[in-house]
Amino acid sequence: MDYKEVTILTNHEVEPFIADILDELGANGVVIEDSAEVSKGRVDSYGEIYDLNPADYPETGIRIRCYFSAFDYKESLLEDIKQAVLQLHDIPVTDFAVSAADIKDDDWENEWKRHFHAFRASETFTVVPSWETYDAAPDETVITLDPGMAFGTGDHATTSMCLKLIEKYVKPGRSVIDVGTGSGILSIAAHKLGASPIRAVDLDKVAVRVAEENFEINGCAAHIAVDTGNLLAGETEKRDVILANILAHIVDLMIDDSYKLLNENGIFVTSGIITEKEDMIVTHLEKAGYRILEISRDSGWIAVAAVKEVA
Questions:
Q1: 9-33, pLDDT tens digit by residue?
Q2: Of the candidates 278, 283, 195, 281, which has an alpha carbon nearest to the alpha carbon of residue 241?
Q3: Residues of each annotated binding site
Q4: Binding region for S-adenosyl-L-methionine
């Protein structure tokens, strides 16, 4: 299938809000190129620090490349994105430009591979692209990943915060469901920590296929059940842990169902929430009966760990 590549150039303050906008407009994949990344050293597959190529990044602000299938793309889309960004309340939009170009599926996959290298995502986990070799240190647990057209490499703040919370709250033998699994990275992390059984669901059939492939790469396909699913609709089996790295308005829709589907003292780990939606999500969690264990914050995003306590 061919895609339209939509390129957005804007200032850093807009980045936490862009995922909501693009998700509602039907984007299939997103690459964020941040001018600030050029000054940061990265660790390659052999433990050496390497410099990023400035030519791959904008001189200022951020460049967002997002992808729409030929079926989803409409001529009005660029104007829709522009208006949605310009209507953000209390967010300064000091720089904005948007354009579109045709792109082949294979070209898209090769494009983002230039930006995806091995990196330490948390205290425990190092994420390594499937096309790289990597010699792990004794204190590293490697997740090998080929995200394809699915979200979630661990490099984004929302995913890295989730991984850090998973390290703390997912224990051996605990049952897990990963809602909106994307690339499958959170399910793989849970498996490597000894969780079982694990179920991964996503509404997007492409994401389900990508997750299945990543489960195979990491040798855990036999231990993770994966299927298409609309949040927690139709789920009946109670779990010890529910993971959801989605977006705030979608998390909000599933809070009540998540509480019902957790065992007593079960943990809900969720992210994809911009800081402006923190009060809304925390209030709903507490109203549903959760006690907040901790809130992580990074780059305009939050992740929450909450426990179901039954009186």
A1: 999 888 888 877 887 787 766 777 7
A2: 195
A3: 159, 180, 202, 245
A4: 159, 180, 202, 245
